[in-house]
Design brief:
The complex is a heterotrimer of chains A (271), B (289) and C (370). Chain A is globular, with a radius of gyration of 23 Å. Helix content of chain A is 79%, strand content 0%. Chain A has a domain at 66-234: MetI-like (MetI-like fold, Orthogonal Bundle), CATH 1.10.3720.10. Chain A has helices spanning 2-8, 12-35, 52-60, 62-95, 101-113, 116-129, 136-160, 164-172, 177-206, 209-214, 222-231, 236-269. With 289 residues, chain B is mainly α. Helices cover 75% and strands 1% of the residues of chain B. A two-stranded antiparallel ribbon of chain B has the order 1-2. Chain B is globular. With 370 residues, chain C is an alpha+beta fold. Chain C has two domains: 6-232, P-loop containing nucleotide triphosphate hydrolases (Rossmann fold); 240-368, Nucleic acid-binding proteins (OB fold (Dihydrolipoamide Acetyltransferase, E2P), Beta Barrel), CATH 2.40.50. Helix content of chain C is 25%, strand content 35%. Chain C is built from nine helices and 20 strands. In chain C, a hairpin with a 5-residue loop joins strand 17 (313-319) and strand 18 (325-330). Chain C is elongated and about 80 Å long. The two termini of chain C are 16 Å apart. Classes of the chains: A mainly alpha (271), B mainly alpha (289), C alpha+beta (370). Chains A and B meet through helix 2, helix 4, helix 5, helix 6 and helix 7 of A and helix 1, helix 3, helix 4, helix 5 and helix 10 of B.
Chain lengths: 271, 289, 370
């Protein structure tokens, strides 16, 4: 009994390792949150507790809220677009064989391996060559471009695990290609689409480098806004905003998790 | 009859295939492939007097790379990228290994916890470290109180490597974790059954089998750390010039596009060489995510 | 006997993948209401044949008729046949009710009608009360029943079953075999069943087609195939056989043959054999007898090598001088000879099955036939 437990449990070094790495990942976030309540404006030492910066954030920093909104809008549109065309491509590449497939596949890997700065510059340079100036549209296009491969690769690993006879079964039961797609293939892919979309959204709203080149002067995303402050200074009201985002994220993730568990439980009850 | 059948087959694969894959294909060609080709093209052209490109072929931009000032930047970038990869590996591997031992119930939460920091902008998180490590910051205040010497490594190359490890390490954890999870535990039992010590089991069985994950993860760290410019801006205080900063400056400040393009091509070549090695060794590109 | 109506007709069907021919020029009639099994080892083309009937594979040559209608080029969703897949292929995102109702929804049936039919069929496969369950919450046997119900609810002309019991454990498999057979008799639907398990084929089928290397070696009832295998492959594949290569030394007027082998002579019956033709002679172990003296026309000498007791039956191996091992099984008290005895083998000549060795003749026979 004792031996078994030892084998199943985690070793001490493993627990220590987990704790240290999570500490490493979250320590700066904790500092950011903590300093959002700091009396001093200088972010050097904690001089006293205040919620003043939150008031400042809500009353005076419309620019920050606009930047957040731009980021969310950009992330949302890019995610939806890349999920739609990425899903179609994944199904098409899974189901059909054609000559250009390998070629397209190779292009898909480019954003995964070429440094972002090169992609951003190539995008900026080639569009300005043909006289297109940077705008929200070009920003969305650039984000969709680097999100598509992530959607496709996430989905591809799921679709590869599918039993091919499930689609055959749908056809066998009278569903034509389109019905099979709508009633079987896509619903089965939904968890994958959600995962790929979440990844896209995360990458999109965190992106600095590509946005830096692809955004026009009027498109200030939150990362661009923050990058602009690197040279001058960060005021605690930015920290306050990020604290709010962090808490919002945790609430949303937690909510999703809770809902999923609840649905699973309800499914179980119905038996 | 025979002909009719053949035509049907062509339609059956070609049209729906084109309809489904076409948008992605066109999109990626138009916004990814063609721009890259354009960059390669202008890297062989001459700089315009007031920025822009004059379409006169030249190799000058590449000759400039050998220029000792630029050469130093390239070497420093390579060194920092390699160090970043090495330290990321030293942190990621044991972490991913420990992660693979986490019970199923907690696993998804642990995985999620790796992703969540990305929701806070990376620049701000780095700035959190700057706050901690600052000369008069909380870490040094604590150290002095304990009677220990203060740490002063902000705005050095060490700080840049630290920032890069912090930023890119999560990308290494995932592929390594995947390949460790795929390990068949009976193999480990077989190894110890055959007399291998724990160390030997690790060196002779676990490490070779998880190599694909290590390689994929290393690429995921190495390549972005070659090109990132904002990390050296924050952690290096703008004192250290890396390839990424150089390219950015050539484009935006010096408005010397062909020169920036040549450095970009250099980065592309670096990348392609690494990728070539990866696929030659049997790496699967899909495991990069 | 009344004229049976073919419900499926395969007309010179060939399937190639590149240079690899998987099904060669197959002709086959499957009759209305029968339980027809295609039996063969893996890779013999049986599943491909089934998938061509279902419409998942295109034909390279030939045609398939379903009730005299050419369906060779028809996509699966237009064919009135349904399939039960080996992996069940239940839709993982739908519960049992929705899985079963899938085909009816495609037919745009009214809700009440769908409800009625689904309830009825779930009742038939003993899954009432499981409507809300997801496939992931069911056992293999239950999933199997859902797969069967999902196909049958559409009232297909033919039900195709691709090794449907392959993933079940032995006990469940036996039970499901009986249930399937009853279901088929009750509904009167034609079943086309693919399996590699000969016992399964023999117990369930009205007719069996033995497939090897892309062709049907023999088509017939279980009894015909067991007692009169037409080819060496069939003799080997179904049950156990001792197969001898022999020369026809004499064709007598009453149809009996005298066969000479390297180590002994035997007698047999058979039509269409010529003098001096090389043939295979096959005999089931349970028919082999041994004695201390040569018996009426048989002169095969061997040595008893081994006895193995299996319950009430004893299996004996006898070695011929050329090293060939002959299997015999019998009740322990029947002509038992101790290990090491020199014995003469014999059996009733009408139990010997004589087969051509000549491949051309063999395939002529297959094409002409059945």
């Amino acid at each position: 009994m004792g031996k078994r437990r030892k084998r199943e449990g985690m070793k001490l070094w493993q627990i220590v390792m987990l704790c240290l790495v999570y500490l490493f990942l979250y320590l700066p976030i904790v500092v950011v949150m903590l300093f959002s309540f700091n009396k001093s404006e200088l972010n050097v030492n904690f001089t006293g507790f205040t919620t003043n910066w939150y008031r400042v954030l809500f009353e005076q920093r419309k620019d920050l809220w606009d930047a957040l909104w731009t980021s969310l809008e950009l992330g949302g549109i890019s995610t939806v677009l890349s999920c739609i065309i990425g899903t179609a491509a994944t199904i098409g590449m899974h189901r059909y064989n054609f000559r250009l497939k390998k070629f397209i596949n190779n292009i898909l890997y480019i954003p995964l391996v070429i440094p972002e700065i090169v992609i951003g510059i190539a995008f900026l340079a080639s569009l300005s060559m043909i006289g297109i100036s940077m705008s929200m549209t070009t920003l969305v296009i650039s984000h969709v471009t680097f999100c598509i491969p992530f959607v496709i690769i996430t989905l591809r690993s799921r679709i590869a695990g599918f039993d091919a006879s499930i689609e055959e079964a749908a056809m066998d039961l009278g569903a034509n290609q389109i019905h099979t797609l709508m009633r079987v293939t896509i619903p089965m892919l939904v968890p994958g689409i959600v995962a790929g979309g979440l990844l896209s959204f995360t990458l999109s709203i965190d992106d600095v480098v590509i946005s830096f080149f692809a955004a026009g002067p009027d498109q200030v995303t939150l990362p661009i806004k923050i990058y602009g402050m690197v040279r001058s200074k960060f005021t605690p009201d930015v920290y306050a905003l990020c604290t709010i985002i962090m808490i919002g994220t945790i609430v949303i993730y937690g909510g999703i998790q809770f809902l999923q568990e609840k649905m699973a439980a309800r499914r179980g009850e119905n038996i | 009859m025979e002909k009719k059948k053949k035509k049907w087959r062509l339609n059956k694969n070609f049209l729906p295939g084109l309809a489904m894959v076409g948008p992605t294909g066109l999109w990626m060609i138009a916004f990814m492939l063609l721009p890259l080709i354009y960059v390669i093209a202008i890297s062989f052209m001459t700089k315009g007097l007031f920025g822009g490109v004059v379409w006169t072929p030249t190799l000058k931009n590449y000759q400039d790379i050998i220029n000792p000032v630029y050469g130093k930047v390239c070497l420093k970038s390579l060194k920092i990228a390699l160090l970043t990869t090495l330290f990321s590996l030293l942190v990621s591997y044991p972490f991913a290994y420990a992660l693979s031992k986490v019970k199923k119930r907690w696993k998804s939460i642990c995985m999620l916890l790796i992703m969540v920091p990305f929701w806070i902008n990376g620049l701000l998180r780095l700035n959190g470290w700057v706050t901690i490590f600052r000369e008069t910051g909380p870490l040094n205040t604590l150290l002095t109180k304990l009677g220990l010497p203060a740490l002063n490594f902000m705005y050095t190359e060490t700080a840049i490597v630290f920032g890069m490890v912090y930023t890119f390490m999560p990308f290494m954890v995932l592929p390594i974790h995947t390949s460790i999870s795929k390990l068949d535990s009976t193999l480990l039992e077989a190894a110890s059954d055959l007399g291998a010590t724990k160390l030997h089991t690790f060196l002779r069985v676990i490490l070779p089998l998880t190599f694909p994950g290590i390689f994929a993860g290393s690429i995921q760290v190495f390549i972005p750390s070659l090109g990132a410019f904002f990390i050296s801006d924050i952690m290096g205080g703008g004192n250290t010039m890396l390839l990424g900063n150089l390219i950015k400056n050539q484009y935006l400040n010096a408005r010397n596009w062909p020169s920036g393009a040549a450095f970009s091509v250099l980065l592309i070549v670096f990348t392609l060489v690494v990728m070539q090695i990866y696929t030659r060794l049997g790496g699967d590109m899909d495991e990069m995510v | 006997m009344e004229e049976k109506r073919p419900i499926i007709r395969l007309d010179h069907v060939t399937k190639r993948y590149g240079d690899n021919t998987v099904v060669r020029n197959v002709n086959l009639d499957i009759y209305e209401g029968e339980f027809f099994t295609m039996l063969g080892s893996s890779g013999c083309g049986k599943t491909t044949t089934l998938r061509m009937i279902a419409g998942f594979e295109e034909l390279s040559e030939g045609n398939i008729y379903l009730e005299n209608e050419d369906v060779g080029n028809m996509p699966p969703y237009k064919r009135n046949v349904n399939t039960v897949f080996q992996s069940y292929a239940l839709f993982p995102h739908m519960n049992v009710y929705k899985n079963v109702a899938f085909g009816l929804v495609e037919k745009k049936m009214k809700k009440e009608e769908i409800h009625e039919k689904v309830t009825e069929i779930l009742n038939l496969v003993q899954l009432s009360g499981f409507e809300k369950r997801m496939p992931s919450q069911m056992s293999g046997g239950q999933k199997q029943r859902v797969a069967i119900a999902r196909a049958l609810v559409n009232n297909p002309k033919v039900l195709l079953l691709d090794e449907p019991l392959g993933a079940l454990d032995l006990k469940l498999r036996k039970q499901m075999q009986l249930e399937l057979k009853h279901l088929q008799q009750q509904l009167g639907i034609t079943f086309v069943y693919v399996t590699h398990d000969q016992e399964e084929a023999l117990t369930m089928s009205d007719r069996i087609a033995i497939m090897n290397n892309g062709v049907f070696e023999q088509i017939g009832t279980a009894k015909e195939i067991y007692e009169h295998p037409k080819t060496k492959f069939v003799a080997d594949f179904i049950g156990e056989s001792n197969v001898f290569e022999a020369n026809v030394s004499e064709v007598k007027e009453d149809g009996s043959l005298k066969l000479i082998m390297e180590y002994g002579d035997m007698e047999a019956y058979g039509d269409g054999f010529e003098q001096n033709e090389i043939v295979y002679a096959s005999i089931r172990p349970e028919s082999v007898k041994c004695s201390l003296e040569p018996v009426n026309g048989f002169n095969i000498r061997g040595m008893v090598k081994e006895h193995i007791y299996i319950g009430s039956i004893i299996r004996t191996t006898i070695e011929l001088p050329n090293g060939q091992l002959v299997k015999k099984c019998a009740q322990p008290d029947d002509d038992f000879k101790p290990v090491g005895s020199l014995v003469y083998l014999h059996w009733s000549p009408d139990k010997t099955v004589v087969m051509h060795t000549n491949e051309d003749k063999l395939y002529d026979l297959i094409d002409a036939g059945e």
